[in-house]
């Protein structure tokens, strides 16, 4: 009986730990229409967070990032890494960038879990007060 209780405790701890992670697949929502726009997969590499568009949910599946800076210019939006180099800072991830593939503009970025199934993603210029937040939904 003790073994079952220990296994159950370990299983619950594992679920809680994975629910507290920002890594995984997230559905983005269009600010104007409120409809799902894309799926972004967030991964961690060398202690930093990166987010790549792995699926486009609109009719613009073959769109390219014509206004993107540098080496991202002209690349397909599907497969584009839009979140780059965020580092853990307390209960949020910051000190990196997010790319808006429609406008081609890069912003400072901070992300923070909002419960276990929502992610608040804030892009801003200068200070956080000068930005906007989207809430993404865990897949």
| CATH fold-level assignment | Lipocalin
What is the overall silhouette?
globular
What is the chain-wise order of helices and strands? HEEEEEEEE
**Strand residue percentage:** over 45%
Q: Pairing-aware structural class of the strands and helices?
A: mainly beta
Which strand order spans the largest sheet, edge to edge or round the barrel?
1-2-3-4-5-6-7-8
Helical residues, percent = 10-25%
Q: List unreliable stretches of 5+ residues.
A: 4-18
Q: What is the CATH C level class, in words? A: Mainly Beta
Structure description:
- With 139 residues, this protein is mainly beta.
- It has a single domain, classed as Lipocalin, CATH 2.40.128.
- 13% of the residues lie in helices and 48% in strands.
- The chain has one helix and eight strands; from the N terminus they run αββββββββ.
- It has an eight-stranded antiparallel beta barrel with strand order 1-2-3-4-5-6-7-8.
- Mean pLDDT is 88; it is low at 4-18.
- Residues 24-138 form the DUF2147 domain.
- It holds the Pfam family DUF2147.
């Amino acid at each position: 009986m003790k073994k079952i209780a220990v296994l159950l405790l370990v299983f619950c701890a594992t679920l809680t730990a994975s629910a507290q992670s920002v890594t995984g697949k997230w559905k983005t929502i269009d600010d104007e229409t409120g409809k799902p726009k894309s799926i972004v997969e967030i991964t961690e590499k060398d202690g930093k967070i990166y987010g790549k568009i792995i699926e486009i949910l609109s009719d613009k599946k073959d769109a390219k990032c014509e206004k993107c800076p540098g080496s991202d210019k002209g690349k397909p939006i599907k497969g584009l890494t839009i979140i780059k180099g965020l580092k853990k800072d307390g209960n949020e991830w910051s000190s990196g960038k997010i790319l808006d593939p429609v406008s081609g503009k890069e912003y400072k970025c901070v992300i923070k879990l909002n419960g276990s199934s929502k992610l608040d993603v804030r892009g801003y210029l200068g200070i956080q007060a000068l930005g906007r937040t989207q809430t993404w939904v865990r897949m």
